[in-house]
Amino acid sequence: MNRVPELRGDHLKLRELRAGDHDAFTRILTHPVLTRYLGIDRMNADQAHDAFAQSLAQPHTHPRRKYTLAVCPPDDDTLVGTMGLLVESYGSNAMLTSLVLLPGASAPGRGHEAGRLLMAYGFGHLGLHRIWAGHRSDHHHMPKVMHAAGLRPEATLRQLFRTQGIWHDVTTYATVAPEWKRQATETELAILDATQHLEPA
C-alpha cells in the first residue's frame, strides 16, 4: 500500500482515513451547508457511502493519484474534517482539494495548516514541483486561507463547474517548491525533509 504517514502540525494532524471515519465523512458530504462551496453537489447517504469506500481504497491504487486525508486534533484521532490532494497525470503538479472542517471542530480557522502539512508531504515525498488550489469566486473567506497556506493568486477560470444548478467561476492560486520552501515553518521543513527520504509503502 501507498500510505501517507501521520502529518503532525502545531494545531492539528492529518492521517489516512479509517473505517471508523464513515459517519463523520458521510456527515460532510450530505450536509447542505458544508457542501455549498464544494465542486460537487450535496450527496444522499448512499452516494456518500460509495464516496467514502472509494476514498478508503486510495492507498491501494498504483500509481496513487488521490489523497483524501482525515483532519484531526493533535492529540485525538477523531475526524473533524478532510483535506485532499489530486496528483495530475502529467508534469509534477497537484491540486489541493476537499478542505472541509465540521462545525464545532477543535481547530477553527486552521484549514490553511492542513493544506500546508499536505503541501510539505507533496513537495517532499511526492517530489512535486507545483501545487495549486481554487475556490468559487464568491467564497469570500477563502482568499485569506489561500494566502496563509503560501499560495498566490493566478487566474479566474470562468464557469468551471456546475452545482446547485448554477455554473461557477473559480479563482485559482499556486506555488512552486523552491518558493514555498523559503517560507515554510520548521515543522513543515521537518516533514518535507523526512518524507523526501521515505521509501514508498
Topology:
Layout: E1 7-8, E2 13-16, H1 22-29, H2 45-56, E3 66-72, E4 81-87, E5 93-101, H3 111-124, E6 130-136, H4 142-148, E7 152-163, E8 166-176, H5 177-181, H6 186-196
Parallel strand pairs: 5-6
Antiparallel strand pairs: 1-2, 2-3, 3-4, 4-5, 6-8, 7-8
Helix pairs in contact: 1-2, 3-6
Verbal overview:
The chain is an alpha+beta fold and 201 residues long. 28% of the residues lie in helices and 29% in strands. It is built from six helices and eight strands. It has an eight-stranded mixed sheet with strand order 1-2-3-4-5-6-8-7, with helices on both faces. Strand 4 and strand 5 (93-101) form a beta hairpin. Helix 1 crosses helix 2 (45-56) and helix 3 (111-124) packs parallel to helix 6. It is globular and about 40 Å long. The N and C termini lie close together (5 Å).
